[in-house]
Design a protein that fits this description.
Length: 267
Amino acid sequence: MNQNSFGGLEGIAWETSPQNLGRGETVAKRQGSWRSLARLLALAACFWLPPSLLAQVATAVAANSSQGTPAEQISALQLELTNAWRQVLVIVNQPVKAYVQSEDTPAAVYSPGWFHQGASTPDFNTVDVRRSQELTYATHQYVTSDLNPGVVFLGQDLEFNAMTKLFYVDRSLPKHRLSEAQMVEINRLYRIIGHCRTELARLQMAPDEEVAAAGQGGSDAEPAPPTGLVARIQRIPREKRAYYGGIAIGALMVLAVAGRLVKRRSE
């Protein structure tokens, strides 16, 4: 046997001498049978998995292969934007420790209230809230306002930031001084918000552009609705199509492997 480059069974598979040709074919057939059986067992193991797990895997594969319809993309972007917005609200409006003001506690009083009315909308795609942070309260040990009689706050605990003011919820209270890490996180969330707003504007404008294009050179006739098998498939929810499709493909593979095994045994 020639085993210069291959060893074991693989060397036998490459045997070409006349006296050992039949034996080499027999071993090769056995190898093919074992490989087919291994594939069959692997497929069977996949079908023994819980249906819910199979559905999750199929849904994940379908999501990676397609971004979905414009309506689905809009819904996903709105959810992502809302989640990012809420996270910014939590960071910006974290509570500030307050102290009861005694008679001998001097405090700088801000009036009227802590903040002016209104707020600027930051450029979520480019703004850096670290650059707009103001620490003017830190010039006083204790500060208060005409909205908080009998209560004082440590000036070093407070800040004002015009680029986060849009997220101030309760303006009767001062805002906690944000750390470097918190401002970096707000910048990251702002980028998400900016991206989502840009994509939503693009997707929401798309239908109008399509209608205009159709009016210029398109046909007035509407396409006929699908019928038969196509209509039945379209009525199946999107997440279940991948699940059923995977089962169908797996069943076809099992039948194909089983057919090959039966054919080889009969030879």
